[in-house]
Amino acid sequence: MNNRKPDFDMQTIKRLFGYISKGNKKKLALVIITIIINTISVVAGSMYLTVLIDNYIAPMIGNSDASYSTLIHPILVMIGIYLIRNNYNTHIRKRNGKNL
Q1: Sign (positive or negative) of CA dihedral 76, 77, 78, 82
Q2: What is the spatial distance between Cα 54 and Cα 31, in angstroms, rounded to a whole number?
Q3: Burial of 78 per CB tally in 10 Å (0-12, 13-18, 19+)
Q4: What are the mean pLDDT values of the chain's consecutive 10-residue runs (100 residues total)?
Q5: Going by C-beta distance under 8 Å and a sequence separation of 6 or more, which residues neighbour residue 57?
Q6: How far is CA 87 from CA 23, 35, 54, 71, 75, in A?
Q7: How many other C-beta atoms are found inside a 10 Å radius of the C-beta of residue 72?
Q8: Handedness of CA 74, 77, 79, 81 (dihedral sign)
Q9: Which pLDDT score is estimated for 89?
Q10: How far apart, in whole angstroms, are the C-alpha atoms of residue 33 and residue 41?
Q11: Which of 9, 17, 55, 63, CA to CA, is 20 to 30 A from 77?
Q12: pLDDT of 71
């Protein structure tokens, strides 16, 4: 058997996208933008959760006079990130006629 990987051919990729986008350029652009926004929001949510735990929650552990009021703003930011992601994805699904 030949286990050699095929060479990367940009012409094939261009031709493939030409077939996909034929008559559907706006939808293809919308799909690509949606994928990018969703990926960014997932990464931002994960990274912000790390910051939230490391900078706000971990220092409060074992501290008897910890003020939980400092958590309000970071938690609201986290909720905002997830609401934006959820609302954007729901809007795109409704626009494309897919209620999942």
Answers
A1: positive
A2: 35
A3: middle
A4: 74 85 82 82 84 86 80 86 75 63
A5: 71
A6: 28, 14, 28, 24, 18
A7: 9
A8: negative
A9: 66
A10: 12
A11: 63
A12: 83
Model pTM greater than 0.85?
A: no
pLDDT at 100: 44
Alpha carbons 82 and 41: distance in angstroms, whole number = 8
Side chain identity at residue 17, one-letter code: F
Q: Which residues contact 69 (CB under 8 A, 6 or more apart)?
A: none
Q: Could you tell me if 81 and 45 are in contact, meaning their C-beta atoms sit under 8 angstroms apart?
A: yes
**What pLDDT shows up at residue 94?**
72
Query: What are the phi and psi torsion angles at 24 (to 5°)?
Result: -130, 35
